[in-house]
Every structure is written in structure tokens, then in C-alpha cells.
Amino acid sequence: MIQTSPSGSTPAEAEAFLAAHPEIEAFDIVLHDANGIGRGKIIRRHELLPFYTGGRHLPISILGLDICGEDVHETGLIWDQGDGDLRAWPIPGTLGPLHGTVPPRGEVFMSLYHLDGARMTSDPRHALQRQADALAAEGLHASAAFELEFFLLANDRGPDGRVQPARDVLDGRPSTKTEVYSVDHLHGMVPLFADVYAAAEKAGVKAETLISEYAPGQYELTLHYRDDVMQAADDLMRLKRIVRLQARLHGVTACFMAKPVEQYAGSGMHFHVSLRDGAGQNIFAEAEEGRWNDPIRHALGGLRETMGESMLVFAPHANSWRRFANQSYAPVSPSWGVNNRSVALRIPAGSRAARRIEHRPAGVDANPYLVAATVLAGVRHGFRHRIDPGPETTGNGYAAEDEALPIPVDWRSAIAAAKASAFLTDALGPDMHRTFTAIKSAEYARVARTIADVDYDLYLHTV
Prior knowledge:
Elements: H1 11-20, E1 26-32, E2 38-44, H2 48-54, E3 56-59, E4 85-90, E5 96-97, E6 105-113, H3 124-137, E7 141-153, H4 183-187, H5 190-203, E8 207-212, E9 218-223, H6 229-249, E10 253-255, E11 271-276, H7 294-314, E12 336-338, E13 345-347, E14 357-359, H8 368-385, H9 411-419, H10 422-428, H11 430-448, H12 453-459
Parallel strand pairs: 1-6, 12-13
Antiparallel strand pairs: 1-2, 3-4, 4-6, 5-6, 7-9, 7-10, 7-11, 8-9, 11-14, 13-14
Helix pairs in contact: 1-2, 3-8, 5-6, 7-8, 7-9, 8-10, 9-11, 10-11
């Protein structure tokens, strides 16, 4: 029996895709958990249409897992509910072929719903949809794009046991220097990135500029600015999966840790966002160049005021906090400025019609659905309370720490701030807030009891 999909998907989409792609034998069906990890199944070709007509049962516990895939009982999603099945449904527009798979496979994203069709509100995608719906009720719509920074690493560690940059896939040439903006350096990875672009095109993802970034083996890919914030988050998730797969096919490792190499800059996931009114006009666009209007000022004010209690979303792992350091291109205070890469909230140079805020705190290890949901909630907070952002930071933003609006200095403090935050509860929704903070607390306990190599180096023979 055909059921009505609460996600808006229809069997016609699957039927048309199957007819157009007779070569595809199987499909990755992917749901993203609180950590942004893609979880789900690989189904056979004949199973795709039943997925579109009746959904697919998945255990509720799939959204209560930590970074290692272990149950976190404090989420309330495991034995408190008997680990019963809910129903996952495909997301319209996310069905596409995967590039370079043998035998050929496709992919489709999904979200989790209760059996009666209600949203399962510990699903990160629903947290973002909740904020998008709240904006729509106010007559506003978010346009957005993410930037993807990452490292390409050798599969084997170096003689010192540490990770090392991947050799060029073109001719095996090594790179140990910071080749920032070097076009010639990019040539060595062109075969890999050619496959990334081909895979992105197949998936409907508009991957754009490629950059050699500010560390050996570090790269950046930009994404086309989308009118729909959800599509922007989907683009980021799909591009990460594409880069990871294509790197693996070319014999190297794509690394999305925030800080994999201690002496170099880490990898961010800058989020560009603007708001359109019902007529499609950008409400951040000022009437005169540089005379910032109330919408963009109040948005900045709300983002500054809520940044401290939101940092766990932007820096969700132990490693995330190693990225924040002075003069590292990662912000250390809730500052704002114009055309200034040392601040947390940057208004990029450009035309008034394209005016937007670049939100810079998030690392590439963060979940883009939760990042976008939290940023939109911060903007709405600023609008509701008409918050003034204070003076613009000019020059060195690392010298402009704001004692009135401090942000946590480590993971443990960020977890405590997030747990106590009424704002973050509203931003993510009560269920997603409980799930996310419980998972982070469990992961903190795991890391805290682990003996690191540095402990043996410092203390084994000395204390």
C-alpha cells in the first residue's frame, strides 16, 4: 500500500530515476546523526521503490549514538523507549548517482519520522527545518552557503607517528610547505578533484572554487550560494561524502578533523547567510554603501550575544578546541567586522545586493544542520530583542577580546554552557538539545578517561 510521505517525497521520483539509470544496482540510504555521521543502509535496486512508497523502518536508537557508534542511554532514545522502530522517508531532490562506484550505486538522504508521520525531533535535519519554518512564519527566508576546508593526508603515518600530507596523485610529488593559494600546487591533485567535480555534478551539487589553503595538504572547496538554507546544508554533507570517497579511490585520506596538525591552522566550515523577504529582496542590503541597516545590525547583535552558549554546536569535539588560537584564522571572541578575517562575524566585501554575514566559528567537524539552525535562531533572537552589536572591530580581532560576552575556553566549559542554555534549547528544540548535549557529555567522559601519549611523554619517568 502506498503511504503519504511526510517528507514530501513521491514514488514518481524513484520511478523516473530507475528508468533513467538502468545501470545502478544499489543505493546508499543515508540519515545524519547529531555528529553529522551518515548512518543507514545499502539497499538493492528493487528495494528503492518500496522505500518511496512506504518508508523504511529504523531503530530510534540510531539518533542516540556517540562518535564511536555506541548507545548513549542519557539521550532517552534507547531503553527508555524500548529501542522501537520509527520510519525513515527519502528527502525529495536528494536521489542521485554516485561517481566511480563499482558496481554502480546511487544515494538518497532520509529523515526520521514517528509512525504517525510526526517529525522525530532528535533528527538534526528537523532542527534546521524548525528554524526555517519559524523564519517563514515571519515572512523571511534564509539563503546560504558553506565553505569546506579539509586535509588530504597519506594513508600511512610518518616516521614520528604523526599524519603527513598526501603525495600528489598525479606524479607522487611530496609537499611539506604551506602552499597557500598556489595554483601550480593544485595541479598535482587535479585528477582527484576532477572526479570530485564530476561526482558533485552528478549529485546536483554546485561545487565551485578550489583553493590550496594555509597548511601543507590543506584545501578548500566553495559551494554555490543557495536560496534554500536546507539545500545549502545538504550540499555540504554531500560534498564531504564525495571528497571522502574520491580521496579513498585515489589512494589518499580526506580528513575532516578540525585540527589534525598541531603546528598549522585547522579547518573551518564558514557559513554565509542572508535573509530574503516575501518579495525576494535581501533585507541585509543597506541603502547606502557601508551604512548598515537595522536587520544586519540586529542579526550581528543576536549572534554575538548567543555565541558563548552556542559554541558546543560550532566546536563539538575535543579536537575542535585545538583549532582556536591567536592569529590562526579561527576566532577567539564574538567580534564582528567588515572585510576582516580575524573576527567571528565577517561582512564580506561585495555589492550591497549580495550583502551577507560570514559566520566563522564552526569547524569542518561540526554538523551543518545544527550550525545553520543555531545561527538562524541567533539572528531571530537579535531581531526579537533589537540587539545592538556594539562597535565594529577593525584591525587585529585577536586583540579585541570581549569580557562582557566571553566564550568558553575549552570543551568541558562549552558542554556546561550548552546544557544550561535556554537559547540553545529553543534553537535546536528540546529533544535535539537533550540528545546533543547527552552525546557530547558521554564523549567527554570517554576522552577524559583515556590516557594520551603526551601523558607518558611528560610524566612516565619524571613524577
